[in-house]
Amino acid sequence: MNEHLLRKYFIMGSQNCVNDPRDILLKAIEAGITMFQFREKGSGSKNGNEKLKLGLELREICKTYDIPFIVNDHVELVNVLEADGIHVGQDDVSVEKLRKQFPYKIIGLSISNQDELKRSPINLVDYIGTGPIFGSKTKEDAKKPVGLEWIRSLRNQGLTLPIVGIGGINETNAQQVLEAGANGVSVISAITKSNHIFETVQKL
Ligand SMILES: Cc1ncc(COP(=O)(O)OP(=O)(O)O)c(N)n1
Ligand SMILES: Cc1nc(C(=O)O)sc1CCOP(=O)(O)O
Ligand SMILES: [Mg+2]
């Protein structure tokens, strides 16, 4: 994949939004996000047909503006939403299975420590998502922050795969994440909770 797509990677589900998620996505796209992940998950999130309807609407917006659309976790939504790819974690469907099913889609995998790195088939993925870099209140089951040191460690071990940092990243600390060796930053609340989405995304 083109590693520049990770530069400003926006993740969102309706549970993250006070305002209409469609409006938030449109504003974020106008401001310059480079990729979008549909993550309808956790308390307050939609299910079934409502989830599907929102996914289709957000997908359509991304298609209009040529922004890659990634599905979080849910393999069955990849074809239905004509997604460009899928992001999975260590406890989700296996990357081996995914790569067989989707030879040409973008596959992102979360890797947050040395053990996970050792047991992950990184040759099959397009990028690594790693975090939480800083403390995050957004993910209900977030691990303890791994810090910038973990990104440096991945690079010091010679990992050349594109890396995107996640967790507690905002316009004031994004630069540190890039300087540590990440190709980009993925954010939820920095954008969904911003009163000035355009300025926030520009600063990121
Ligand atoms: C870009 C990116 N990085 C990490 C994650 C977290 O994935 P996961 O560990 O599977 O946790 P959930 O998001 O499924 O709760 C991500 N979604 N995106
Ligand atoms: C979805 C997610 N995954 C994480 C991980 O560490 O894998 S942290 C996280 C939440 C990111 O939200 P915010 O930008 O609001 O902190
Ligand atoms: Mg997951």
TrEMBL record:
Domain of life of the native organism: Bacteria
GO molecular function: thiamine-phosphate diphosphorylase activity
Catalysed reactions listed for this entry: 2-[(2R,5Z)-2-carboxy-4-methylthiazol-5(2H)-ylidene]ethyl phosphate + 4-amino-2-methyl-5-(diphosphooxymethyl)pyrimidine + 2 H(+) = thiamine phosphate + CO2 + diphosphate; 4-methyl-5-(2-phosphooxyethyl)-thiazole + 4-amino-2-methyl-5-(diphosphooxymethyl)pyrimidine + H(+) = thiamine phosphate + diphosphate; 2-(2-carboxy-4-methylthiazol-5-yl)ethyl phosphate + 4-amino-2-methyl-5-(diphosphooxymethyl)pyrimidine + 2 H(+) = thiamine phosphate + CO2 + diphosphate
Pathway info: Cofactor biosynthesis; thiamine diphosphate biosynthesis; thiamine phosphate from 4-amino-2-methyl-5-diphosphomethylpyrimidine and 4-methyl-5-(2-phosphoethyl)-thiazole: step 1/1
Cofactors required: Mg(2+)
Enzyme Commission (EC) number: 2.5.1.3
Metal-binding in keyword set: yes
List of residues binding 4-amino-2-methyl-5-(diphosphooxymethyl)pyrimidine: Q37, F38, R39, E40, K41, N72, S110, K139
Gene3D superfamilies tied to this protein: Aldolase class I
Keywords: Magnesium, Metal-binding, Thiamine biosynthesis, Transferase
CC cofactor note: Binds 1 Mg(2+) ion per subunit.
Binding site for 2-[(2R,5Z)-2-carboxy-4-methylthiazol-5(2H)-ylidene]ethyl phosphate: S136, K137, T138, G168, I188, S189
Domain Thiamine phosphate synthase/TenI: 9-191
InterPro entries: Aldolase_TIM (IPR013785), ThiamineP_synth_sf (IPR036206), ThiamineP_synth_TenI (IPR022998), TMP_synthase (IPR034291)
Positions with a binding annotation for Mg(2+): D73, D92
Pfam families documented for this protein: TMP-TENI (PF02581)
HAMAP family per UniProt: TMP_synthase (MF_00097)
Family recorded in the similarity comment: Belongs to the thiamine-phosphate synthase family.
Entry function: Condenses 4-methyl-5-(beta-hydroxyethyl)thiazole monophosphate (THZ-P) and 2-methyl-4-amino-5-hydroxymethyl pyrimidine pyrophosphate (HMP-PP) to form thiamine monophosphate (TMP).
The protein's name in its UniProt record: Thiamine-phosphate synthase
Species whose genome carries this gene: Piscibacillus salipiscarius
